[in-house]
Specification:
Homotetramer. Helix content is 29%, strand content 23%. It contains seven helices and 15 strands. The strands form three sheets. It has an eight-stranded mixed sheet with strand order 4-3-5-6-7-8-9-10, sandwiched between helices. A five-stranded mixed sheet has the order 12-11-13-15-14, with helices on both faces. The protein has a two-stranded antiparallel sheet with strand order 1-2. Strand 1 and strand 2 form a beta hairpin. The N and C termini lie far apart (58 Å). Bound molecules: 2,5-anhydro-1,6-di-O-phosphono-D-glucitol (AHG) and manganese (II) ion (MN) (3 copies). One manganese (II) ion binds next to loops.
């Protein structure tokens, strides 16, 4: 057995995004780099709290309900506060949109920067108390050239984002990021307190063997979804797909990026617009999926092309391997 010596040349996330900035030369001011560095610190801070949650009475409900009518968990509120404080203090943001805040935050002039961040501070709330994987999702827009930062700067198609990513708090903390030229994954080395590049240039396999839907909603699904799912569970040739559904979008998408297959949360007879929120769930994940060579659609339309009209709106989501998502969209095309 040949053993490789440990690497003495670690590529940290800070080093990697700074290299990116240098490649862009004078065009880059370094503001996006500093913003990304601020975001990675929030992920470390949230990760340590997630790890300790059971020990420091951070499990359970906070006692409030968010604008979506969901009961907030203590960790939802804590993660939101960590992100708002750090993003404001970074001096690089102008508008913040969080799942947990009814309204957008417009940053006051003295702290104002050129970027808008939309985020889901803690994704997978229902899994917190069981210690199952959860995450943080974020997307970044530049403010429009003529703007000081208004709601109009975030009511724009996801294709106008300049960066998107998530951190998954699982058996390790993994930060997955795209600044528009591919997708890279970093793993938190807890001893160093640094995210290290472990998954350079992630590409989704063009076809997978896994489907990831909450099939408990089957009685509400529309025919294209039901018929597609039947086609992969009862294939005419070959073997059926495996089911994997964690119920934390971050974890289900992370596995889909690495292993391939399809993740879906469709609109249905009960949830007319689906469940997932366009700005801070669907857009960032669609951005990452496309950057990794996959496809992200509502079934009939590219997600990144949607023009949002309100910050908490929802949309139908299917994303993953190109061939798998195309198989699904054929059912939509033929059954309309
Ligand atoms: P959040 O915890 O941020 O409110 O998001 C929950 C989302 C998402 O993580 C997941 O894909 C989905 O809700 C799961 O919904 P079901 O429990 O209805 O399957
Ligand atoms: Mn929620
Ligand atoms: Mn979420
Ligand atoms: Mn959330």
């Amino acid at each position: 057995v040949s053993e490789q010596p440990p690497s003495t040349d670690l590529i940290t996330l800070s080093r990697h995004v700074m290299d990116d900035q240098l490649r862009l030369g004078a065009a880059a001011t370094g503001d996006l780099t500093l913003l990304l560095i601020a975001i990675q610190v929030t992920s470390k801070f949230i990760a340590t709290n997630v790890r300790k949650a059971r020990l420091i009475n951070l499990v359970g409900l906070a006692g409030e309900t968010n604008v979506q009518g969901e009961e907030q968990k203590k960790l939802d509120v804590l993660a939101n506060d960590i992100m708002v404080n750090a993003l404001r203090a970074s001096g690089k943001t102008a508008v913040l949109v969080s799942e947990e805040l009814d309204n957008a935050i417009i940053i006051e002039e003295k702290n104002r920067g050129k970027y808008c961040v939309v985020f889901d501070p803690l994704d997978g709330s229902s899994n917190i108390d069981a210690g199952v994987n959860i995450g943080t999702i974020f997307g970044i827009y530049p403010v429009r050239p003529d703007s000081d930062g208004t709601i109009g700067d975030v009511l724009r198609p996801g294709s106008e984002m300049v960066a998107a990513g998530y951190t998954m708090y699982g058996s390790s903390a993994n930060l997955v990021l795209s600044t528009g030229s591919g997708v890279n994954g970093y793993t938190l080395d807890a001893a160093l307190g640094e995210f290290i590049l472990t998954h350079p240039d992630i590409k989704i396999p063009s076809r997978g063997k896994i489907y990831s839907f909450n099939e408990g909603n089957s009685m509400y699904f529309y025919p294209p979804v039901t018929n597609y799912l039947n086609s992969i569970k009862y294939p005419k040739t070959g073997s059926p797909y495996s089911a994997r559904y964690i119920g934390s979008m971050v974890a289900d998408v992370h596995r889909t990026l690495l292993y391939g297959g399809i993740f879906g949360y469709p609109d249905d007879k009960k949830s007319k617009s689906g469940k997932l929120r366009l700005l801070y769930e669907a857009f960032p994940m669609a951005f990452l999926t496309e950057q990794a060579g996959g496809v992200a659609t509502t079934g009939t339309k590219r997600i990144l092309d949607i023009m949002p009209t309100s910050i908490h709106e929802r949309c139908s989501v299917f994303l993953g391997s190109r061939d798998d998502v195309q198989d699904l969209t054929k059912f939509y095309a033929s059954e309309r």
